[in-house]
Amino acid sequence: MMRGSSRYRQMCVTYPLLVLISLIGLLPFYWMVACSFKTNENMFLMPLQWFPHPINWHAYGDAWKAQDFTRYFLNTTFIAVAITFGNLLLGSLAGYSLSKFRYFGRGVLFLLILSTMMLPLEVTMVPLFLIVKKFGWPNTYEGLIVPFVVDGFGVFLMRQYLKGIPNELIEAARIDGASELRIYWQIVMPLCKPALAALGVFTFREAWDMYIWPLIIVTKDSLRTLPLGISLFMSNFGTSWDQLMAVAAIGTLPMVLLFFFLQRSFIQGIAISGLKE
Amino acid sequence: MSASGSTQSRSLRKLFGLSISEKQALFAYAIILPTLAIIVIFRFLPMLQAFYISLHEYDLIRPPTFIWFRNFIDLVQDPLFLQSARVSAIYVVFSCVPVWVLSLALAALFNREIRAKNFFRSASFMPVVMPAVVNAVVWTFMYHQDGVVNTILAWFGIDPIPWLRSSKWALWAVILIGIWRATPYYMVIFLAGLQAIPQRYYEAAQIDGASSWNQFRHITLPLLKPTTLLVMVMSVIVAMKVFAVPLIMTGGGPADATRVLPLFIYQTAFEFFKMGRAAAMSVFLFAAVMIFTIFQIRLFSRGED
């Protein structure tokens, strides 16, 4: 009887609740896509149109022509890929160094890297801009990529993961005469695949999202990233909502694909960002 | 324990005048060097420089002049800065507390046996997938006077709310989005924490006849304490950094109602070119973040070795 009543309660409370939560999560996505196919006359029609009718097929093409979104899209892709690979390579190297070797100053170095982990860019943006300006990097890909090519979080994550890899494997390879670099690349890296995947997806998402930094150092149109392009498009007088929703949908699509195809790593990256071990 | 330094390797023949363990240490230094260079130049140095610049007046054109603590004194007397700090504080408190409760509740919900769990979990996770700028654009559209949010509210007999046009409502509109986007993120972290709790504790409690509330209260919450603390710290730091959404949705207005600290720093530095002033504000923000970071490093290091 107890079981029966709790089943019943689950049916009547849990599922409606889950449906409601899912709707709240999905509504902005649905609304973005639906309204990108609405005509502008019908955008705020009362009562509200839940399905676009008639369908407006022009928003995507028109928006794409209004600004150089192809360029923005390629810029963001290139920058995000570069930052991701940088983090995977440098983060795993540094993590390997910190977890599997003993040397003078290791503890201090780890603490130094750790201390910058939660340092928000919003705190350092003024001096960081001055430094990057000194390098002559405003309006360059270097300026957009190099400061973020490695991050404390990646080092920390890789170090923690590598600590769990048995030293015997590395020692055995050394006895076989493998060079240190080869041990890293052919023995250690393959064992880190889950951690690398999680870090990679996490970093790519963050890089795709980057806004404040490009806003500060990019003024040339040819270097604009997608988030910059979208926000500029919005602030332009006379931009119509259907076109704005169309660009927003295109900007979201890569993240949605990433989530669906690499769901495990996507979720793992976030779960790990909250683990203390 | 360590990879090197055993008596065996120390007695091995030397190569190029270096022992094996010295060679290994050299390799270890070499592979951490690029990371170290990047972190020192682009994270650590700017952190120190922020303090230095905050003691100067600097407009990017004329050379900086040293003015002691003038910037700080000006700031604490500047009503705009105080307003901005107040907005940030309100944002942090009222976006974080609901996020803690909701994300834990959601995690507890998804930790149970549910049919079609993967579908519901993915659906509720979707806000994390939406890029910040898109988030701001789409919600601006949804908050429109005749938009979808007011339409849904009208079903419940609530009059249209002038979300982004009223200084009374704008900050709440921004806070609601913050909650919408952050909740699933921390849900994932809580879920990982929940799944680490051994099932046998609950089984034992069930044999003793403990109600599910008591199980939650006396097993889940105490064992979830480290995760909870971590979520609290992380979410507060993330909330202190909120920038894209208020900038795009309201530009800080109306009547400064949504000008959070990072936004004010950005505008002071890159619209009014008062670098010293902006750096002084960063120092304030830094102090606030630092308190939480120190707290967090302690949490992290507790799990060491």
Strand numbers in spatial order across the main sheet of chain B: 1-2
Mean pLDDT over the full residue set of chain B: 88
- As a percent range, the share of helical residues of chain A equals over 70%
Strands of chain A, count: 0
Number of helices of chain B: 14
CATH architecture assignment name of the largest domain in chain B: Orthogonal Bundle
Class by helix and strand content of chain B? Answer: mainly alpha
What structural category arises from helix and sheet content of chain A?
mainly alpha
Question: CATH homologous superfamily of the largest domain in chain B?
Answer: MetI-like
What sequence of helices (H) and strands (E) makes up the elements of chain A?
Answer: HHHHHHHHHHHHHH
Could you tell me how far the N terminus lies from the C terminus of chain B, measured between alpha carbons in angstroms?
12 Å
Cα-atom radius of gyration of chain B = 26 Å
Uncertain runs of chain A are none
Percent range for β-strand residues of chain A: under 5%
Give the termini separation of chain A.
Answer: 43 Å
Overall average residue pLDDT of chain A:
90
Number of strands of chain B: 2
Give a verbal description of the structure:
The complex is a heterodimer of chains A (277) and B (305). By secondary structure, chain A is mostly helical. Chain A folds into two domains: 2-26; 67-273, MetI-like fold, CATH 1.10.3720.10. Chain A is 73% helix and 0% strand. The longest helix of chain A is centred in the first third of the chain and has 35 residues, at 2-36. Chain B has 305 residues and is mainly alpha-helical. Chain B folds into two domains: 7-54, no CATH class; 77-302, MetI-like fold, CATH 1.10.3720. Helices cover 72% and strands 1% of the residues of chain B. Chain B has 14 helices and two strands. In chain B, strands 1-2 form a two-stranded antiparallel sheet. Classes of the chains: A mainly alpha (277), B mainly alpha (305). Chains A and B meet through helix 1, helix 3, helix 4, helix 5 and helix 7 of A and helix 2, helix 5, helix 6, helix 8 and helix 11 of B.
